[in-house]
Amino acid sequence: MSARISLFALAVMVPAAAVEDLARPGSLQPSDLEEYASLEGLRKQIVDEALDLAAQQSWLKYRFGSADPESGGLDCSGSVYYILQKVGIDTPRSSAAQFTWVKDAGALTEVATTVTSTGDAAFDDLKPGDLLFWSGTYEPTDGRTVPVSHVQIFLGHEKATGEPVMVGASDGRTYRGTKREGYGVFDFKLPKAGSKARFLGYGLPPASE
Questions:
Q1: Which one of 4, 34, 144, 186 is CB 3.0 to 4.6 Å from 173, fit for a cystine?
Q2: Is residue 12 situated within a structural domain?
Q3: Does residue 193 belong to any structural domain of this protein?
């Protein structure tokens, strides 16, 4: 093989290898969460369904546009859509529509851009089962009227670390400081200073009548 061909092969292989190097997301048992024993009703149902999906043997990858685990992967709003459908809630499909849906129901707690820590008083009302919303994680091209681009489900605090954790689909967020890819458990962290991303707020999805 010529040097020229070898360099071309290397250039093709590196991006693929970089994606494959991302670790599998975390998977927790309900007993691993500090707040789980006090959960009931809708919040408990959401957390149970979310953890059950994360615990399955197959590795659900991040797949943009998918809300069906049978496809082998899910995107962020697709995973929320799937879980809420499982607990009997008819939810919108996109993260932007889910944000508007929670806000219009009066269930959204908005968080100011000046808040830099999940330990801030702005998160005093945050509870497991709440949806978490971000903007600026990528540039949507579907004509959405609000700039929301990412959504996850808050799980509470992990007993082993005391750190806040969330569940959903991602192609690069961390769990215990390591970048992960797919559907599962991730660290709940606010965007770093200078990031284009912004954490917008949280709220419990409105239950269907």
A1: 186
A2: no
A3: yes
CATH number at 40 reads 3.90.1720.10
Query: What single letter denotes the amino acid at residue 23?
Result: A
How deeply is 33 buried, as exposed, middle or buried, from its count of CB atoms within 10 A (0-12, 13-18, 19+)? buried
Q: What is the spatial distance between Cα 206 and Cα 103, in angstroms, rounded to a whole number?
A: 10
Asked if residue 42 lies in contact with residue 203, where contact means CB atoms within 8 angstroms, the answer is no
Q: E-strand spans in 63-163?
A: 73-74, 109-110, 131-135, 148-157
